[in-house]
Write a structure and sequence with these properties.
It is a single chain. Helix content is 35%, strand content 19%. The chain is of the alpha/beta class. It has two domains: 16-236 and 420-501, 3-Layer(aba) Sandwich (Aminopeptidase), CATH 3.40.630.10; 237-291 and 334-417, Alpha-Beta Plaits (2-Layer Sandwich), CATH 3.30.70.360. Helix 14 links the parallel strand 15 (390-392) and strand 16 (407-417). Helix 2 packs across helix 5 (161-177), helix 2 crosses helix 17 (487-501) and helix 3 (34-45) packs antiparallel against helix 5.
């Protein structure tokens, strides 16, 4: 009986998802051209795309512009001094009364290649996930159509080159089916999103004629952990700092100087531990001040969303969660204080019996609507001062270190931006929901997704609205090693992008 019900639900979902003519055309095109689609995707993923690698970033930008010129779009690189290119492409529609932007980014997170099972810029197909002992399937001999549960492993396979490939393929499908756009469609692909989008606002302001639109559709991030299509009406903001504590000017023998010389690693551990309580609540005074409350519509959307927490805990081998008994979706509507990495001297085989000279934590703070990133950093800095530290925003001098028993530096690591939310009740919000449902069936609505996207820079600079419509699988290991895209998510994304382009 259970098996019959599952089949019925699957058929029902497919039927609903086939009501959009463009998504139907995209499915038919994809089914006939899977090998060519994968070949183009592999070629794009093979170009290294770390934001600081200027030469390869340029290669990416030029390759993407060529992809869209090939599809009949007018494409160009928008360049400002000291900034990575933004790829701009446009399809003009005669008589159109509005303009829609589809956004993604082509740069990827920094990486340590030795951590990857396969080289990060050598896209590798596996028959299932690495965690399930997925085996390599050579693309040259792969049997098409592909098993939808296969995974393609590479940096930016999901975050965020998959949407770029999906948009380009959607254009192929629409052209083959004779489908026309109804709005002016602009494609904007950023090359610094993973580096904090430091130059995006400046680029948008300098070229408002190119980037202005009635709405920006943000095609970045994963779908719901239930694998259901997600529409998110906002994203958390982000600011990132490096916090360093200082001991002696050089490492010291732990036997000769232990119990005498201050240990900055211990100092940092105590300081960080004091900033959050056992439930995950941030103890920094004023940290939660100014948060904008959720509307009744937003509260209902959260209440109606599926609850994947138990399944997700099993998937991740978690025996408990921070903020319990709060649900994941409830908790990502709140700000967070995250230690994203720590370093002090050496560990493992390279460890030595020393008192470290310094200890550093890299911290990201995810912000919700109503919080200001500058004030948030100021509050954290004041808290550190309150723990007895002399705090600098630079590498402290010898004089500064000798004049104070406890010295710390707080340095902004990335520019960051604040959070925004688009009201769900707006006509454009409702239209986007209807369009996505016509392509993907019933969807999950979130007021805010957990990740950060530079929505504030877009909205404040251009006076537009932003709505996020992601397509990657939730278990894609984005920002970490062995990033991947589930093949079915790629196929679904092509259908989704076709529906949005034809909106």
């Amino acid at each position: 009986m259970k098996r019959v019900v599952c089949v019925f639900l699957t058929v029902g979902a497919l039927a609903w998802g086939q009501s959009n003519p463009a998504s139907v055309a995209a499915r038919q095109w994809r089914q006939a051209h899977e090998r060519e689609i994968m070949a183009e995707f592999v070629e794009l993923l093979s170009i290294p795309n770390i934001a600081r690698d200027k030469a390869n970033i340029r290669r990416n930008a030029e390759a993407i512009a060529a992809m869209f010129r090939k599809r009949g779009a007018q494409a160009q690189l928008v360049v400002e001094p000291d900034a990575n290119p933004v790829v701009f492409a446009e399809l003009k529609t005669a008589g159109a009364t509005r303009t829609i932007v589809l956004y993604a980014h082509y740069d990827g997170q920094p990486l340590e290649a030795s951590e990857w099972l396969n080289p990060p810029f050598t896209p590798t197909l596996r028959d299932k996930t690495i965690e399930k002992d997925g085996q390599v399937v050579p693309l040259a001999t792969a049997k098409f159509p592909l098993d939808p549960e296969m995974r393609l492993y590479a940096r930016s396979a999901s975050d965020d080159k998959a949407p770029i490939l999906a948009m380009a393929t959607a254009l192929d499908a629409m052209k083959a089916a004779g489908l026309k756009t109804r709005s002016n469609i602009r494609f904007v692909f950023e090359g610094e999103e993973e580096a904090g989008s430091a130059n995006l606002g400046r680029i948008l302001a300098a070229h408002k004629d190119l980037f202005s639109a009635d709405v920006w559709l943000i095609c970045d991030g994963p779908v719901s952990q239930t694998r259901q299509q997600l529409v998110a009406f906002g994203a958390r903001g982000v600011t990132t700092i490096n916090l360093t504590t200082y001991g002696a000017r050089r490492e010291l023998h732990s036997g000769h100087y232990g119990n005498w010389a201050p240990n900055p690693a211990m100092m940092l551990a105590r300081l960080l531990a004091s900033m959050k309580d056992d439930s995950g609540r941030v103890r920094v005074p004023g940290f939660y001040d100014g948060i904008a409350p959720l509307s009744e519509t937003e509260k209902r959307a959260i209440a109606d969303a599926p609850v994947p927490d138990k399944d997700l805990m099993a998937e991740l081998w978690l025996g408990g969660t921070e903020g319990a008994p709060g649900r994941l979706l409830d908790l990502i509507q709140q700000p967070s204080f995250n230690i994203r990495g720590m370093s002090s001297s050496r560990t493992g085989a390279g460890a030595s019996n020393v008192i470290p000279a310094t200890a550093t934590a890299s911290i990201d703070m995810r912000l919700v609507k109503g919080m200001d990133r500058v004030k948030t950093v100021e509050r954290v800095t004041e808290y550190i001062r309150g723990q007895g530290y002399f705090v600098t925003d630079h590498e402290p001098s010898a004089g500064e270190r000798m004049a104070h028993a406890k010295v710390a530096s707080v340095m902004l690591h990335e520019a960051g931006y604040n959070a925004v939310r688009t009201p769900m009740e707006l006509p454009i919000s409702q239209e986007v929901m209807r369009t996505v449902e016509s392509a993907r069936g019933k969807v999950v609505r979130w007021p805010t997704m957990g990740g950060s996207v530079p929505l504030e820079k877009i909205e404040d600079t251009l006076g537009t609205r932003t709505i996020s419509i992601p397509m990657a699988n939730h278990d894609n290991s984005q920002h970490s090693f062995n990033e991947n895209i589930r093949i079915q998510n790629l196929w679904d994304g092509i259908e989704l992008m076709a529906a949005l382009i034809s909106m």
